[in-house]
Amino acid sequence: MLSYHDTVESQTRIKNKLKAKFRQNGIKCRGETVYSARHRKEWKKRLPKDKVVHVVVEGLWQQLDQVKEVQEELLRHIRRQSKHYPEIKRFKRITGSGTVHAATISAIVEGPHRFAHKKKLWMYAGIGLAEKASGGKGVCKESDP
Question: How many domains does the chain have?
């Protein structure tokens, strides 16, 4: 489960480096097309003729493709494995919680026996309500995960 989150972080890091490389060369790049294999020829034309810049950008695109492939494979594995765990199905019923979030909660929590009562479990998982006080007035809001 944690390897999936690591690949997502790696993907974000590579995307940031890719856009930074274009910006270093005075090229504005907004949106997602800079990452798309379909638009790479257009983006390469905008780069300066410096061979090193082209090699670096090509390398980043290659890394991005590899990370995406691994991420998709891990996601398929998570979906397949999550069918065997009833607690993941229950976590998925939480509004805004999908397979990855539910499996992550399940993996980190391990079992409810670790917690004195359900409110502590909810707070640990980031799905409970936290009571905050300001100026003598109590305010309920969602807890930060």
Answer: 1
Q: Render pLDDT for 30-75 as a digit per residue (tens, 0 to 9).
A: 999 999 999 999 999 999 999 999 999 999 999 999 999 999 999 9
Structural domain boundaries enclosing 35: 2-85
Does residue 9 contact residue 74 with C-beta atoms inside 8 Å?
A: no
**75 class by beta-carbon count within 10 Å (0-12 exposed, 13-18 middle, 19+ buried):** middle
Bin 97: left if φ > 0, else alpha if -120 < ψ < 50, else beta: beta
- Structural domain includes residue 12: yes
Tell me whether residue 81 is in a domain.
yes
Residue 76 is inside which H or E element, if any?
Answer: helix 51-82
In terms of pTM, does the model score above 0.90?
A: no
Residues 46, 38: Cα–Cα separation, whole Å: 15
Residue 39 placed within a domain: yes
